[in-house]
Amino acid sequence: MSTDTELKFTVRLNKRDYMELWRATPLRFLTWVLFLIGAYYLYWAVRVFLDCGFNEDTFWTLISYAFVAAFALFGAFIFPRLRARVAFRGPVFLEPREYSATESGLHCESRLFDGRYRWPAFTSIKETRRAFLFSVSPAAVLVVPKHCLPTKEDVDRLRTLINKHFQGKKRLQNA
Question: To which H or E segment does residue 35 belong?
């Protein structure tokens, strides 16, 4: 049971929630650049093969183009998903956690860890279509998926708490 100034909810992260970190960074555009590089080199590998065939003269050219294309496509599609998969091998990510958002900050508690963050502890707070991302540093982010908040009113209450008490850099959606 929560009061007007306290919002309690349970978070159990999944890989899709973790991918929200990738979608919220400017690096997400790197996916398209890498895809275009991969497609470009794949096109030239096919073009060289069709024009000149496969022989001693074209062997290393085809291998080079194919390697660059495979590396770029791996970076574009597999690397972000591989990071999410590796992160979930640790027990902390699999553990459900109880959050309390109050006027003083955000408190996170689970069977394995406990964390209390006052609002000034965050460097930025970003709201995406699916989650709230609370950045403690460029490398440490708390992900609070919106589907873990019981009602739409609770999403609005969390947004209001952030607007009222967090003075740092924030990018929230308009309700």
Answer: helix 28-52
